[in-house]
Amino acid sequence: MIDRKHQRTFSQPRAGALSWRAALLAGAVVLPSWFIAIYAQPGLGRVAAALLFVLGVVICGALGGLGAALAAATAAFLLYNFYLVEPVLSFEISTGRDVIPLLLFSLCAVVAGVLAARLKDRARAADDSYRQLSSLLEISRSLQSAVRVPDIASALDDHLSGSFDTLATLFLVRDGTFDAAVNGPSDDIGLQLVRKAADSEDSPREEGPYTVYRLDSAAGFEGAILFGHGLSRPPDKAFMSALANLIALAVERAALSESNAERRAQARTEELKTALISSVSHDFRTPLTAISASASSLIEFRDRLDPAAAERLLRGIVSECDRLNRYTSNLLEMSRLEAGQSLARRQTLGVADTMSAIVQRVRPRASHRRIVRRMSDEDLLVNVDAALFDLVLVNVLDNAIIYSDDGTSIHLDVGRDGDFCVICVSDEGQGIPPDDLERVFTRFYRVARPRPSPRGSGLGLAIAKGFTEAAGGRIGAASPGPGGRGTVITIMLPLATESSPA
């Protein structure tokens, strides 16, 4: 399958175009030389007139190359013989002594023109070599930063189409199919040439305006690069061969990078699966053990337990069930966020009412910690998923409770900053090391603590980050907080507008 976007048709250079340019240049230079020589001969002599013609031939060779020099030398010989050698206005030669000067003049004109033309050609070749080497260096730099095949094809098109009027089409073998990476030729000649390169190890192959090079790597045949040349002179074969080698290396590097990325993704998936199983087994085992112990005590000692003790055990069972429910909710909501389903259930919520309900629900778990709620604006509205918003705030408050001591305060500050609702949860607990401030938003990441502390699931802040980003907001952590202690988690959510869905 070939993508025919950005196609360009190439034609063969027109035969004879160079000779016409050479003839025009020769006429433009030799005719003025002849005109000056006619008027200079009476005063300066025939030798000076001949040197004027030789000068014109040299100028043609220097400007137009070998073709222009030979055309100018021929024209100068005819004009010199016709107008300056006796008898004038005739190509006849009156005496034998005039033959040798005429031949010497012709020889000098040709030699001078050829030397000037060769100098011109060498200078042009040097310029072409410098331009091609510079382009190779630029392309090499671009290919070093190209990590995907489309980037490689784009870099080639940018450099070659502008500098050499050449289109390079990259063909790769993928799953047994020979595909053009970005663009392809608009005729069958180039496509047939590419297929021939795939079937044979002969490289390069040329046909019409196209040249194809095989791309071979350590793993075998990777594809081919097809060069299509415009009306200007194509780059030389050494340049295209070196370029093909650079492309082969870039393609091989892109394939290895893609393979490594897949392997890393697989490894990360396995790590996450292992971490998930470990986290779930640990986080579920603890409350299940507490529930089992409390329920067993109620069954075994129900006749000997006083009502207060029985109520404590029952409340413990309810608390651990709530804990299990939060863990399950975290896992389910994390899956929803990763599947991109977090925006499906948006509604407009009053931040003040939501905060009051959440604080009332979390307060029993705070034990002897104070939860201080401060609202600078009671009328703030946000358009979010209600269940996720509730879960995120509960997770952040639970973290503040878990990692702070009894007798400390947890502050919940809500305000407005431009078009954003800003929610800050600060505690006076252990804080987070500077190196871990970004990592705490990674799934299953837990900060290493110098002293034993309760272990969370490692999902709370990851869910908070996914939720806020999906809602168009942002979240950040700072430590230490006010007073040089604890942690501050700041959540910024866009305020609801009139066009927001209810």
Automatic annotation (TrEMBL):
Compartment annotation: Membrane
Catalysed reactions, as listed in the record: ATP + protein L-histidine = ADP + protein N-phospho-L-histidine
Matches recorded under Gene3D superfamilies: 1.10.287.130, Backbone structure of the membrane domain of e. Coli histidine kinase receptor kdpd (1.20.120.620), Histidine kinase-like ATPase, C-terminal domain (3.30.565.10)
Record Pfam families: DUF4118 (PF13493), HATPase_c (PF02518), HisKA (PF00512)
Cellular-component GO terms for this entry: plasma membrane
Ranges where the Histidine kinase domain occurs: 279-497
Positions of transmembrane segments: 20-40, 47-80, 100-119
Classification via InterPro entries: HATPase_C_sf, HATPase_dom, His_kinase_dom, HisK_dim/P_dom, HisK_dim/P_sf, Histidine_kinase_KdpD, KdpD_sf, KdpD_TM
Top EC class of this enzyme: transferase
Bilayer topology term: Multi-pass membrane protein
Any one GO MF annotation of this record: ATP binding
Keyword RNA-binding on entry: no
Protein name from the UniProt record: histidine kinase
Organism of origin: Sphingobium chungbukense
